[in-house]
């Protein structure tokens, strides 16, 4: 039976083209409301709750009474950037990382192939005994 199969969810997905396997990260990125991140207020609440739950779980794992302190402070963008080490209007995007050299190489290869085929066609048209008009 499919219930006894350890890979049943993946097999079921593979057998029906309408179904697609998604990692938990992909699922929650597409369904932010389920994870509690569908608006700013709920996101803040969910983040704080998760941090507190993780602290409590860690304290429970090493049988120690937890000491959890939560401080929520609104920061300006400038102050936040200073705290994380971004000064001024630093451009942190390395444009060279987005250069698609593989596609450029493929395009050059295709163009070279077209050029060679065009030359070959011209030579075939000029060959003696060729009755084609071109």
Automatic annotation (TrEMBL):
<feature type="compositionally biased region" description="Basic residues">
    <location>
        <begin position="112"/>
        <end position="125"/>
    </location>
</feature>
<protein>
    <recommendedName>
        <fullName>DNA topoisomerase VI subunit B transducer domain-containing protein</fullName>
    </recommendedName>
</protein>
<feature type="region of interest" description="Disordered">
    <location>
        <begin position="109"/>
        <end position="134"/>
    </location>
</feature>
<dbReference type="InterPro" id="IPR036890">
    <property type="entry name" value="HATPase_C_sf"/>
</dbReference>
